[in-house]
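Record type: ASSEMBLY
Status: queued
Input:
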Amino acid sequence: MRAEATEAPLAALAAGGKLAFARALARVEEAPFASDTVALLQAAWERPRGVAIGLTGPPGVGKSTLASALVAAWRRLGRTVAVLAVDPSSPRTGGALLGDRTRLALDPEDEGVFVRSLAARDRLGGVAALCFPMLVLARALFDRVLIETVGVGQSETEIVDLADVVVLAVQPASGDTLQFLKAGIAEIPDIAVVTKADLGLVAERSARELEAALALAAPWAHRRPSVLRVAASRGEGIEALLAVLEERASQAAQRDPDRRRRQAERWVLRELEAEALRRLLRNLEHALAPIADRPFAGAAAMLAELDRLLPERQS
Amino acid sequence: MRAEATEAPLAALAAGGKLAFARALARVEEAPFASDTVALLQAAWERPRGVAIGLTGPPGVGKSTLASALVAAWRRLGRTVAVLAVDPSSPRTGGALLGDRTRLALDPEDEGVFVRSLAARDRLGGVAALCFPMLVLARALFDRVLIETVGVGQSETEIVDLADVVVLAVQPASGDTLQFLKAGIAEIPDIAVVTKADLGLVAERSARELEAALALAAPWAHRRPSVLRVAASRGEGIEALLAVLEERASQAAQRDPDRRRRQAERWVLRELEAEALRRLLRNLEHALAPIADRPFAGAAAMLAELDRLLPERQS
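Status: finished
Output:
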């Protein structure tokens, strides 16, 4: 882990190795707006060292195997890598979706690879709210930051609010193609990967369907996602994926120079909104009771109260 | 259209017929918190005359045909009916999903049936935010209020925030069963209807799959949704559906006496939150610019500003 950042807190962090980085991530998770954290994050945001790659796809598609293969390939190229593996859970059942998440097969002694699992379950705002500041910090210290998240519900779309490059993993013959089209997800990935390409004809047909679907969904040819076949367990297709990934990574800032600024702005505004709302409701708590009894009349009274706190126009 | 409500604005409305009701709905849509609207809605909420039935399901399942058959059946029973047909649109494309929505086949001269189409597209908060106050008004004036909405994305779950009884329509052999289980939707409907039951064996298999899926998803047997087969175009199964529907409708208030209060409270709080947030952002507008340049440092400054507007504790 090396750091080119010149500012003091970042340099100290870079010198501290993986343990210091793990502590800093915990601090960012706990208090992203504390003054020390804000200073660190602002410095990190101004000095991105690497590129953030989002890897998403349905449960069981083989994301962890793919992630392990990518990390190993990056290490062979001499790149440092941080992995943030996010485990979103069903908001309905509250249970974990990934009880037995396959562990990444990595060398724990390697100072050039950092892995952290994150539970997004109790976090309002989901994956993006949780990950964004950690990603900013990781991107200032590592060459590649891989955010791995299960594609359920909103998390596929949230990954766009986080990553510089998005990879979508698709299972052969899973009917995922149709689902992606339905959900409008085809607009999202930079790269689509059909996993388990050792399934031969089935995988090939899925890849062709995906290409056809993406061509329909993404008429802007220059932005159309690349479709690749990978059999990660055999190592097949990883080099080709890596080549496309590195090419996209090197173009990321150039293709959309404003993307990181927009992501940061969205994250900050969402966090501020949540905090503002929390305070507002606390300030209005005494006016809530009438709403249970007389909802519409109570709402009118509460709007009057709101007028007092936040007038329509303020000097 | 008769009204038992004793309060003046409701009585006047009931005497005005469908035209007056249409005008009142438009006023509610436009200004739900204006003092005249609030008085009307509060009176309507305190005097529910009928029962609100939500009808949802994927596009093409035959909801409009089913709705027409139900309305005709209710009219034969002498019940007055209001239909609110909501057209949510994809937030991604902005286009309408139901360009050629099948019109309900109803007698326009019948004063006992009112139909209104609603576009939820431009409405933040979606179907529930738009419909709830209109439903409250309709429920005070009609025996049955049918809210028809396409089941895409969140709208299936939103219908629970609106209706007293929820009917989910499912297409035979559509793979919907699996989707419902995935999305946790199986917890929602009071009644599940397999449409196009004239498809014979295919429809029968879908109904059995649905029953099995619901039994898995809803272990609480007393709350398990009924599964019915309907071929609305031939009128088959409508009487059986109507019988179950009327039974559920008559039990609605008794099974869950707090449901309407919770729905009203949720709607009011969501609307107030949206309004509060809008005002807050307007009040903080001058502090937004630094966030684009220095997102994290800017956020800290904005939190300080927020402290001034809404202190953590206020007397």
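Annotation: Strands of chain A lie at 51-57, 81-87, 113-119, 144-150, 165-170, 191-194, 226-229.
Annotation: Residues 1-6, 90-102 of chain A have pLDDT under 50 and may be disordered.
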